[in-house]
Design brief:
163 residues, mainly alpha, two-stranded antiparallel sheet, 8 helices, 58% helix
Length: 163
């Protein structure tokens, strides 16, 4: 069920390219993990559980579902027509449209998902922008600057991903 819904959202949101060379490309796997995490946080009920990992939220069951999908031709994925939650898709799209589509895309998605995770799921949770910045600086060990983390927080807040 989750695999079919995942394929439906990938097709509906035009994300089939994310699965291209998935098996051999860490960056694509990272992007898909963060995309699905943020999609679920936008309200899509895909049923994946995410825990914290080096590069932020990670779901092993998502990885297990994505590998077989990645080997399917794009035309097959595009045939999945299960209805998707339009409200969740719209909220997700408003966020993802703010993410650059260049080589930094994976880094930005990692940062957005990580900031969201420390604000909503980690223990203890960050309660403020300042605490989120501090948490990410500590967890990511200099991978992102305070300014980058603050911008990610602000973007999440402006797109109603933070309550």
């Amino acid at each position: 069920m989750a695999k079919a819904m995942l394929a439906s959202y990938i097709a509906a949101l035009g994300l089939t390219d994310t699965l291209k060379n998935f098996e051999f490309d860490f960056t694509r796997r990272l992007q898909l993990q963060k995309i699905v995490y943020l999609l679920q946080e936008a309200g899509a009920e895909l049923g994946y559980h995410f825990g914290w990992y080096i590069h932020g939220p990670y779901s092993s069951s998502l990885a297990n579902d994505a590998y077989p999908l990645s080997s399917a031709p794009a035309e097959i994925i595009d045939t999945f027509k299960s209805p998707v939650d339009e409200k969740a898709a719209k909220k997700f799209r408003s966020l993802i449209d703010s993410v650059p589509s260049d080589k930094r895309r994976a880094d930005v998605l990692e940062l957005l998902a990580s900031v969201h995770y420390v604000m909503t799921h980690s223990f203890p949770r960050a309660r403020t922008r300042k605490e989120a910045i501090s948490s990410i600086l500590d967890l990511k060990r200099g991978r992102f600057s305070s300014s980058e983390i603050g911008k990610a927080y602000d973007l999440l807040e402006s797109k109603s991903f933070l309550k």
